[in-house]
DNA sequence: GCCTGTGAAGGATTTCACAGCC
DNA sequence: GGCTGTGAAATCCTTCACAGGC
């Protein structure tokens, strides 16, 4: 029905949306694929092609209406609403996530947090009281949660992912350094700064050996 | 000379290396591309093809020697050595990064941290004393730093990136929610949980509208 | 018999290039 | 004249499939 939209395209849309929000904040009202492409190091053709999967949003000779396109993208992505997020793992990393102020303004509300450590359970982090991990399933049965954030040690991560999946959660943001398995109808994204650095070193090494300054 | 290796391939190698380290820790001595692929949700052919860019590491009929392949990958990626990292931005996020214990064991040593806020300058985080951002250039001139981590507010991020680039840094890990520009000989990776979530909502939305249970 | 390494085929994604519209 | 939307071409990446070695 919906002709299949490449995942790479979906992954770029939030980047476009962010740039458009920026332009809007700066008072810009129109932008061309050329100009947007320069902001984002993306070719204009790519932007136009990506958008063409969803409709025709531009005007020839003019470009795109910033507010209009932003609204469209927000709707397409579903970021025009509030999403309920739960956090599993409230160690150092989990606490930083809970207290990171960047999710709320984007519509991602952390509604619950869980941990196994009794020293942490009952504490207040980022506006919620930490519950015991044993209450996870009951909580998810009783409350709508759209996205799970996993911030537990690697050894626990797959089993936490499994519990989230079994409770019907369809989107998981995993900070644990493992490749977690999920069924095909569940979306998972991995945040792993170590992997990111480990791929960069390949290029540093190379630049040192060849054209070192 | 070195025939061009696709960046996607380079990005997968650290994942392979992590899985191999896992296998080694569990005492496994050999692994087939089949078995490794199952661990990582990757096709065996893809693993073999990826590795074939760098050499012939396996034995027909047997598979790969876990320790041997791991050592090779570590050498290829350059993660067999220590890398010197500096952190710019020691707000909440920056502090969490400085105190995150996951970098050191992987060979990424944070050797300096910088911030503009006088309340933070002089404080001790993650084993280093925070310096004033005005000392960044002098520090980079006097000390080898391989990788810069940017954890400043969006509004400051591009200018910090520029300063790192001008000081000759060839790899940047950017946590700020912007698309930063770098010259082609500089590698940059973006860590942005919000973008990750914003692409997942597209799929949640879809799964809700279609086969919702 | 099992599994690698790899050309060749297939598929996916990006870029080109231009008709059409403002 | 400037810029979108889009088929077609080009490029890039993945998968197939099998020869060859263990």
Summarize the structure.
With 213 residues, chain A is of the alpha/beta class.
Give the CATH class of the largest domain in chain A. Alpha Beta
Oligomer: homodimer
Q: Alpha-carbon distance between the termini of chain A?
A: 55 Å
Please tell me what the overall shape of chain A is.
globular
Strand content of chain A: 15-25%
CATH superfamily label of the largest domain in chain A = NAD(P)-binding Rossmann-like Domain
Family (chains A, B): Belongs to the transcriptional regulatory Rex family.
Function (chains A, B): Modulates transcription in response to changes in cellular NADH/NAD(+) redox state.
Keywords (chains A, B): Cytoplasm, DNA-binding, NAD, Repressor, Transcription, Transcription regulation
InterPro entries (chains A, B): CoA-bd, NAD(P)-bd_dom_sf, Rex_actinobacterial-type, Rex_DNA-bd_C_dom, Tscrpt_rep_Rex, WH-like_DNA-bd_sf, WH_DNA-bd_sf
Task: Describe this protein with a few key phrases.
Rossmann fold; seven-stranded mixed β-sheet; homodimer; 10 strands; alpha/beta; DNA-binding; 213 residues; Arc Repressor Mutant, subunit A; three-stranded antiparallel β-sheet; 44% helix
Q: Could you explain how this protein is built, in words?
A:
Chains A, B: Keywords: Cytoplasm, DNA-binding, NAD, Repressor, Transcription, Transcription regulation. The structure is a homodimer of 213-residue chains. Chain A has 213 residues and is an alpha/beta fold. Chain A folds into two domains: 71 residues, Arc Repressor Mutant, subunit A (Orthogonal Bundle), CATH 1.10.10.10; 113 residues, 3-Layer(aba) Sandwich (Rossmann fold). Chain A contains eight helices and ten strands. The radius of gyration of chain A is 20 Å and the shape is globular. At the A-B interface, helix 1, helix 5 and helix 8 of A face helix 1, helix 5 and helix 8 of B. The structure holds a DNA duplex (22 and 22 nucleotides).
């Amino acid at each position: 029905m919906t002709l299949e939209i490449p995942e790479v395209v979906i992954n770029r849309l939030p980047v476009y949306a962010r740039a458009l929000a920026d332009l809007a904040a700066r008072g810009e009202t129109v932008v061309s694929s050329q100009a947007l492409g320069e902001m984002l190091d993306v070719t204009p053709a790519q932007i136009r092609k990506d958008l063409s999967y969803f409709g025709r949003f531009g005007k020839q000779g003019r470009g795109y209406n910033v507010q209009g396109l932003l609204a469209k993208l927000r709707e397409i992505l579903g970021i025009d609403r509030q999403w309920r997020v739960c956090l599993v793992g409230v160690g150092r990393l989990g606490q930083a996530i809970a207290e990171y102020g960047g999710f709320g303004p984007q519509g991602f509300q952390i509604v619950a947090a869980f941990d196994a450590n009794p020293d942490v359970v009952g504490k207040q982090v980022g506006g919620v009281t930490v519950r015991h991990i044993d209450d996870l399933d009951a909580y998810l049965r009783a409350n709508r949660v759209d996205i799970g954030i996993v911030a537990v040690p690697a050894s626990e991560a797959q089993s936490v992912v499994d519990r989230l999946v079994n409770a019907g959660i369809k989107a998981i943001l995993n900070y644990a350094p493992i490749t977690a398995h999920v069924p095909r109808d569940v979306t998972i994204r991995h945040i792993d700064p170590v992997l990111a650095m480990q791929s960069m070193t390949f290029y540093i090494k190379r630049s040192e050996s060849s054209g070192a300054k």
